[in-house]
């Protein structure tokens, strides 16, 4: 087992005008489950492939433990990768698929059999060992791909959207299984997904990428409570955080018809940047419904979930109108078409610079 370090690792594809991954700095602890997340094209697969040795590194370095692997071929890195499409050999049985890398490495038959059987037991695949991949369900194939990685007992697991070919329900249950398995095995894992819910539920820590640039690395809890910038604020959380551009007033911001207090540091930082507004983030669960004041919302859609509900509405804004999502108690769900006044809880708001997007509040 080992830690993994991206030390300003950069990948510029031939003919590209800007790096697909730009000076990535990331330290993953021994045994940690780190999830790389971001929208399509942000450089997740490229980062993982650089770590695997499948992609050249054009600047910086990559280390596994204290070994500099930047220019080592994939086979010398002691990693195992699980791909989105599983890449199983169709003509081989499940057992042979799982044991293939060990066979190539010259291990004896009895050892291979034992390791394959151990992994099969962990993954609930024992009864399928003699089948061919085509006689398996998607979820079973996914587990064979996992098994193939596990039998090698690598220093690092790499997984690139391994659940994206499963249906929604199976994806949720498999997510839990993979996280539990990783915890049992204690093998350092870098897991790539575009799905922020997957990232938040699986990772010890989450790293958010955008346009090849690392935005924030944090525990899921901190990522939710203290997003570092507007991008992370809007990307993490479902339904997404409401982001409202509001004018700065004395000691606070003018939030609809109310003044919401904001720390002096945040206001000073905004003024220093020459901004007359800040962008305030409010999660749907951090609004209180009021008789008057605050934002006036016209309710468009109400999603009743029993214990609570989500109200989707619009509020007048500088440029036309703005969508707002509010969580309300299950017994206080408003009528569609009605008007609602909501005020953010001052202690729960997030303040961002309108011009740079950086977080200004603590
Ligand atoms: N082999 C390649 N050659 C040139 N550009 C590539 C190649 N692979 C990926 N890219 C570009 O690099 C960027 C990052 O891609 P990728 O790492 O696959 O993103 P993600 O996995 O986050 O969707 C994208 O703009 C993509 O078009
Ligand atoms: Mg990808």
From TrEMBL:
Molecular functions per Gene Ontology: ATP binding
InterPro entries attached to this UniProt entry: AAA+_ATPase (IPR003593), ABC_transporter-like_ATP-bd (IPR003439), ABC_transporter-like_CS (IPR017871), ABC_transpr_MalK-like (IPR015855), ABC_transpr_MalK/UgpC-like (IPR047641), Filamin/ABP280_repeat-like (IPR017868), Mo/tungstate-bd_C_term_dom (IPR008995), NA-bd_OB-fold (IPR012340)
Positions of the ABC transporter domain: 4-236
UniProt keywords, alphabetically: ATP-binding, Nucleotide-binding, Transport
UniProt keyword S-adenosyl-L-methionine present: no
Superkingdom of the source species: Bacteria
PROSITE patterns: ABC_TRANSPORTER_1, ABC_TRANSPORTER_2, FILAMIN_REPEAT
SMART domains referenced in this protein's UniProt entry, alphabetically: AAA
UniProt entry tagged with the keyword Transport: yes
Entry-linked NCBIfam families: PRK11650.1 (NF008653)
Annotated protein name in UniProt: Sn-glycerol-3-phosphate ABC transporter ATP-binding protein UgpC
């Amino acid at each position: 087992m080992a830690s993994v370090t991206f030390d300003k690792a950069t990948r510029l594809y031939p003919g590209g005008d800007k790096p697909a991954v730009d000076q990535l700095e990331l330290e993953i602890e021994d045994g940690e489950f780190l999830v790389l997340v971001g929208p399509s094209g942000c450089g997740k697969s490229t980062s993982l492939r650089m770590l695997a040795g499948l992609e050249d590194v054009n600047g910086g370095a990559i280390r596994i433990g204290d070994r500099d692997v930047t220019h080592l071929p994939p086979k010398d890195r002691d990693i195992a990768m699980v791909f989105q499409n599983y890449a199983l050999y169709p003509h081989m049985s499940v057992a042979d698929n799982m044991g293939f890398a060990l066979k190539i490495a010259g291990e004896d038959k009895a050892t291979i059999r034992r390791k394959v059987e151990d992994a099969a037991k962990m993954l609930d695949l024992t009864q399928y060992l003699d089948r061919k991949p085509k006689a398996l369900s998607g979820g079973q194939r996914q587990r064979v791909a996992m098994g193939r990685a596990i039998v090698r007992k690598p220093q690092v697991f790499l997984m690139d959207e391994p659940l994206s070919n499963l249906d929604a329900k199976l994806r949720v249950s498999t997510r839990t299984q993979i996280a539990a398995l990783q915890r049992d095995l204690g093998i350092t894992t870098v897991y790539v997904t575009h799905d922020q819910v997957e990232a938040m539920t699986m990772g010890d820590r989450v790293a958010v990428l955008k346009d090849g640039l690392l935005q924030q690395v944090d525990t899921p809890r901190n990522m939710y409570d203290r997003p570092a910038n507007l991008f992370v604020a809007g990307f993490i959380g479902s339904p997404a955080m409401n982001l409202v551009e509001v004018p700065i007033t004395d000691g606070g911001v003018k939030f609809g018809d109310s003044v919401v207090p904001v720390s002096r540091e945040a206001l000073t930082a905004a003024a220093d940047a020459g901004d007359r507004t800040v962008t305030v983030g409010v999660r749907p669960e951090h609004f209180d419904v009021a008789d008057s004041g605050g934002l006036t919302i016209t309710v468009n859609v109400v999603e009743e979930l029993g214990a609570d509900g989500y109200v989707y509405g619009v509020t007048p804004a500088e440029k036309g109108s703005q969508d707002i999502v509010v969580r309300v108690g299950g017994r206080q769900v408003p009528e569609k078409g009605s008007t609602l006044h909501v005020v953010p809880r001052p202690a729960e708001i997030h303040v961002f610079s309108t011009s740079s997007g950086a977080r200004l509040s603590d």
